[in-house]
Amino acid sequence: MQKLKVDFVDVEFINEQESKPQNSESVSSSSKFLAPPSKGKFDIRKSESRAILPDYNKPIEFFISSDASSVVEHTKKVLFLEDDDIAHIDAGELHIHRARKSAGMSTTRPVQTLEMQLAEIMRGGYDHFMMKEIFEQPDSTYNTMRGRIDFKNKTVTLGGIKDYLTSIRRSRRFQMIACGTSYHSCLAVRSLFEELTEAPVSVDLASDFLDRSPPIFRDDTVIFVSQSGETADSMQCLKYCRAAGALTVGVVNSVGSSISRDTDCGVHINAGPEIGVASTKAYTSQYIALVMIALQISNHVITTAARHKEIIQGLSEIPKKIEKVLKQSEHIKEISQKYLHGRDSMLIVGRGYQFASALEGALKIKEISYIHAEGIQAGELKHGVLALVDDKLPIVAFATQDSFSPKVNSALQQITAREGHPIIICTEGDNIIDRSKASAMIEVPQTIDCLQGLINIVPLQMMGYYLSISAGNNPDRPRNLAKSVTVE
Ligand code: UD1
Ligand code: BG6
Hints:
- The protein is an alpha/beta fold.
- It folds into three domains: 122 residues, no CATH class; 200 residues, Rossmann fold, CATH 3.40.50.10490; 142 residues, 3-Layer(aba) Sandwich (Rossmann fold).
- The protein is 37% helix and 16% strand.
- It contains 15 helices and 17 strands.
- It has a five-stranded parallel sheet, sandwiched between helices. A five-stranded parallel sheet has the order 14-13-15-16-17. Strands 1-5-2 form a three-stranded antiparallel sheet, with no helix packed on it.
- Helix 11 packs parallel to helix 15.
- About 10% of the residues have low confidence.
- The site of 6-O-phosphono-beta-D-glucopyranose has 15 residues, from helix 6.
């Protein structure tokens, strides 16, 4: 029989009354991963709160971990160390020593019983992985850039492609291939790629690329974008392009996945595991990874230097700006419930950099709320879609300020002239748009034109989530869909 002894070598006495509140505070601060963002503390029931614990009548096995989620499948009993604690395990006994004694220091470390299941712990206090992943975006976008962008000197170095830069720069054209959300991230950066590389850029859905089997040449660079790195259609395209002798570049989240292994080189987006079927944080990280690739390819071109600096400055501010949009979650929830819940169909309108946001926003809504949503290029309204517009059809319009604003405003006028009442996503403090005929406004922080889609997509991700919840669906497991589609 082993004894579990919790020992504070430099503590003279134990005052349980005082130590309890301190301990509960220390749990919430020492385990950030477990704490829901809106609450300072989370709900753990304590089973013990004593310095010397009673004998356990079976051998004790200890697991040491930086996070309870990694051991919860082995034990529900956890003890959180505090700053400056030193744990020493020897012959089945645990001793905790203090590196230094500080005033007001708690003198007990309770062994607590986690009430959460592994899945709940991994959800970090959120009801669904999707919401957790939406809220992770300030961190995940930062992680995509971490160690790659020198914000002080405004330079980008991607270890995964730097040895291939000469070949990439010699390419006659760029071809991007992907499916679903990953395809939309390619569309989102296409014009920036064209602007910085001055080469033609094609973007194809993997399934359509396979159907066409278009000509691919040895001096093409083909970029494969995939969260999972296992999508069968994209893999087939990769085989085809390799056989044609093109240089293949992956932009992948899952390290060690098929696309990551089989491409000549590439960039891991480092967004962390994405569990929700509806892709959210992978989209914003893929977008940033592709922007960084365009910056790295063109960093020897003097004429683009000022644009580079502007974009890198813009990238440095993205996590904070996403955070600002996330703070509007209640406003976005109300709008979703009031104007979109229970409707059969809706249009999401955008142009220029926001065409991709419109397509991705529509995908988010349809895949988890099961409401038909169609992403429309605003310039195409007059070529057919206007026939649908009346005072009943819900419309979400991207109208953040950039060089396309006059054209977007004209599209808004076309909509309101037909009694449409759009929900408008606009720049904070915008005083150009006529708000009088809008159902609602969502104001978002402004950033550089080519990065604005990183901010604008967040309200649509949240709308999709709230509509899914309102309809009684599980946003993490939409019907008929899979996270990783490994069949053609
Ligand atoms: C790499 C390490 C990172 C380390 C850093 C230090 C990995 C996975 N990454 O990051 O842990 O901190 O060096 O310098 O070990 N690749 C492909 N196809 C893809 C994606 C990646 O071939 O789709 C290749 C890259 O060309 C590269 C390797 O995988 O050879 C790692 O890529 P990436 O993680 O993006 O490289 P670093 O950011 O340099
Ligand atoms: C599936 C997912 O359809 O595959 C989508 O449900 C995803 O969310 C698409 O965008 C493409 O997957 P991947 O892993 O290649 O990015």
